Fold this sequence. Notes:
By secondary structure, this protein is an alpha/beta fold. Helix content is 33%, strand content 11%. The chain starts with a helix and ends with a helix.
Amino acid sequence: MAVPPLVLLLFLVACASIVTSGQDPFIGVNIGTDLSDMPHPTQVVALLKAQNIRHIRLYNSDRGMLVALANTGIQVIVSVPNEQLLGIGQSNSTAANWVSQNVIAHYPATNITGISMGSEVLTALPNAAPVLVNALKFIHSALVASNLDRQIKVSTPLSSSIILDSFPPSQAFFNKSLNPVLVPVLNFLQSTGSYLMVNVYPYYDYMQSNGVIPLDYALFKPLPSNKEAVDANTLLHYSNVFDATVDAAYFAMAFLNFTNIPVVVTETGWPSKGDSNEPDATLDNANTYNSNLIRHVLNKTGTPKHPGIAVSTYIYELYNEDTKAGPLSEKNWGLFDASGSPIYILHLTGSGSVLANDTTNQTYCTAKEGADPKMLQAGLDWACGVGKVDCSPLLQGESCYEPDTLSAHATYAFDTYYHQMRKAAGTCDFNGVAAITTTDPSHGSCIFSGSLGRNATSVNVTAPSMNSTASGSPAGNYYTSMSFLLWMKVLVWSALFL
């Protein structure tokens, strides 16, 4: 199906005006409750705080959770469950009462920023579709009456399955049978300054494609340019399903002449376990997808159509839900089990402290696998010299001499410097050859700084300045035989690492 030139023109003109609700993109988490041993709200909030999760979406408006979230600053989307939608959509007073009990009673102590009207109503509960628009309007009117409509936005999550002909994205359009509801919904979102909520599940797209969609394309894995999917209408290259689906949502709205409604992805993720007919629901794939997703969003990569304008996204979900109905995969989308232990440790180098996913909160600095040996050597030289790391444990016969490899020695030096600097931002980079990890690199009698249950200690030192020399270095005998040229190299590299 060819896209009408007018639609393409409207969309291209609107590109520059699309924003993400006036704030930097963020990663949030959905919190389901289908657990046989659901943690107490205070435990949930403690986990959120430990993981630096500042945005969550609840599938209800549980009072215990809203009370526990008070004064934390965590931004909360509360939900009207599908089963309550009919009542609210048929009664303005019922909607006002819901807002009074579930929003006003907790705000502003609890930082409620959004209300989600149902979940995938158009596909999951089609008999409620006729009242969906009224439900949105009634809830919004109650917020207006309390002067909260600017702080709290109202929307409804849609399944990406209602976007038809979604690749290439420029040809996408919504299921036309839903237009009698969708057009008023989009009018409401536009007039109230709200955003389109879309649930994006590359896992299901991949599973249902019968091999057409490559696994790497679904998992955000880097692809060579000749393997990327190309939109023939726009010549834009797509390297992952997520971006293609988000851009398809924008094009589908443009097809209906709505060009300034931002998209927020309210659900996405990957299951870590599945039945025998779900071979790609694995720990490794779940880790890969969510790690790449977080990096993609927080790096503000954006989509091919909107480079630099990343889409705020909520991961599905915080906990594995063991009482969830359906196949095994349905129970295994969580990042943690009910006890708060991580299902897997996310690979989040360079993504800050959000969702480190290690409940011990221990991080280490290690040499990157495959790093340029010359760069590693330069970094090692700098750390043991100007960086004031005591590298005497790396001497032959000492505790960290084995394994006698450049990578192992660099890891010791990098990690010691990282902990000496109290894990400050930018202290685990070394010109791109070092990375933060949650895996303790200690081995045998070689105990790294910050190692749990060990006797390692961190040395408190002042960060060396740009003009530091090695004359005060505590490197001990490690560098007594260094040549003049090597010292000069250390001084040159100090300018790069500081």
